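User: structure tokens for this one?
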Amino acid sequence: MLKPKNKILLVGGGGYLGRAVIKCLSSKELKNVVVYGRSKCKIPGVEEIVGDVDNLNVLSGVIKNSKTVVYLVTENKSGNPKDHQKANVGGLKNCLELSKKYGVEKLIYISTTMVFKKDSKLVDETNYEYRQKPSGNLYVDSKTEGVKLLNNFDGLNKIIVYPSVVVNQSFLYKQPVGVIESIKCRIGLLTQGGVMLRAGDSNRRISYVFIDQVANLIAQLIRSDDCETEYLAVSVNTTPKDQIRNSQGKINYFPISISDWIFKKVFGELQYDLIHQENHYSNKRMKKMLVSSNNS
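Assistant:
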């Protein structure tokens, strides 16, 4: 049971995943939730504080009164390396240090399966082997640096969640409003469909997880007494062909087939793996997971 003064701090909680987490929390829990971000998102019934992850004065004030800190900040779109470093490394470091300073009970960090090496083998009973060499992808390299920083940080209880590709049940980024957005939705511009490059064998495996499943996992971790574990969040392990078939009626895919050899020559080995999000992490190799795998 949460005490009235024990806050649940969602750093970056006004975003895509943060809003989904808020929906999974009870009205009683929401009274203790604080959303921290660069601008107010006007989330009904939730306290919001404006600040950046590098604003130590404001960040200190909100972490000081927190029991649990959930770090949801991520950068995966910018072409500026500084933006990736700030969100995926620097901001995380600030939250770790301040959480330790003020005696936060636990910090929950959302990583990605892309921090693992291809065909990763277990280093020990609970950990996978992280990438050792730079991949050339700003998002992947900064997230890898961030998770290594977290693992080497002592004196604080930490939980790491590794989602695969996160998608909506509807495969929509947002509900279309008006004719123009409906047209954009139809051709894939507002969906997680659209043009899809399909390299090589159509029977190769890809993996993803629905946002509601990740959000429910995070909500359970906020409530639980679990204070130091790693979770792999993968719910669907399928093929590109089956993914297209299963999403028909929700969105439109326009698959473009291209050979393995040509794809690797044009886009490189990393993009070959990224576009497929290959599932190298079988169910048997997980120590603990709240999101179940299907079709594995």
